[in-house]
Amino acid sequence: MSALVVVLFVVVIAGAAALSFYLKQKRRDELAVFAAQQGLQYSPDDVIGLMDPSFRLFQMGDGRGSENVVWGTWQGLPIAEGDYWYYTESTDGQGHRTRTYHRFSVAEVQLEKGVFLPYVSITHENLLTAIGDHLGFRDIDFESDDFNRLFNVRSQDREFAFKLIDARMMEWLLSTGGQFAFEIAGGKVLAYCRRLGPSDLIPIIGSAKAFHDHVPQLVWTEYSAWGKGTAPGAAPVPPTASPSAPSAQTSSSGGGSSTEDSP
Pick from 46, 47, 200, 218: CA 20 to 30 A from residue 168's CA? Predict the structure, then answer.
């Protein structure tokens, strides 16, 4: 009987591994087709350094990684999209380690050359963020109660956050229903959500672009690297040296069993 149990266990493990490989390859094939249809490039590996540590999302967890990247020019803007994951690790009373994985689709839009912005995060308001507010880690409140109930906005530069999220930006963010979270830092906008299927990526890429398009003219004017600033689409003469984004990093650790929890 024990031999039969072992055989069944091996069969189940082999079947799970085969299914995982099939689904992984299927996603890669579908993403390659999606990229070709949109006139973009695709790689199963992160060859472009998607994980910019300027963004809080790319600092989370005990280990993290990115793959299946799509990049190029989309509707006139440089964009990059990819699969991102991080895991948290816990240990039980017997010393057994368990990993819980969180998987996301992320889209980045590059801002105009010479624009360098302070960090702001705009995430969906939930129980954890509400508890943080009560513990003193307060987000930034705006005049709209509807907006404050839906979004949690954090930035060390409160003045910039109010300039960025003006009435027009606020109205657009409310129209998204909180489907995506956003971060802006340096020369990039990041949009992210739970991992999407290859056929469902247009909305997240489009939302990253729409966020860019709703950045107020005041921000373009005041935060360009060479003075008075220009609106997107103009052709200013850039400074001799513009700020550069931090290089991407990847961290990982070995061992332990794993579980899935895709927020």
Answer: 200
- 91-94-95-98 Cα dihedral, nearest 10 degrees: -40
CA separation for the pair 210, 49 (Å, rounded):
23
Q: CA-CA distance, 74 to 52, in Å (whole number)? A: 20
Using pLDDT thresholds of 50, 70 and 90, give the confidence band for residue 258. very low
For residue range 24-70, what is the model confidence (pLDDT) as tens digits? Answer: 899 999 999 999 999 999 999 999 999 999 999 999 999 999 999 99
Query: Beta-carbon neighbour count of residue 222 at 10 Å?
Result: 15
List the one residue out of 110, 135, 136 whose CA is nearest residue 54.
110
Using 50, 70 and 90 to split pLDDT, how confident is the model at 130? very low
For the whole model, what pTM was predicted? Answer: 0.77
**Per-domain residue ranges for the chain?**
14-260
State the pLDDT at residue 255: 40
Residue 46's nearest CA partner among 203, 249, 254, 258 is: 249
Secondary structure percentages of the chain, helix, strand, coil, to 5: 35, 30, 35
Asked if 23 and 218 count as a contact pair (C-beta separation under 8 A), the reply is: no
Res 224: pLDDT: 81
Contact 180, 193 (CB under 8 A): yes
For the purposes of burial, counting CB atoms within 10 Å of the CB of 216, is it exposed (0-12), middle (13-18) or buried (19 or more)?
middle
Is a pLDDT exceeding 70 seen at residue 16?
A: no
> What is the predicted pLDDT for the residue at 163?
97
Q: Is 111 in contact with 213 (CB distance < 8 Å)? A: no
Q: 155 is written with which tokens?
A: 């930035």
- Give first-to-last CA distance, the chain, whole Å: 41
| Structure tokens belonging to residue 50 | 């998607």
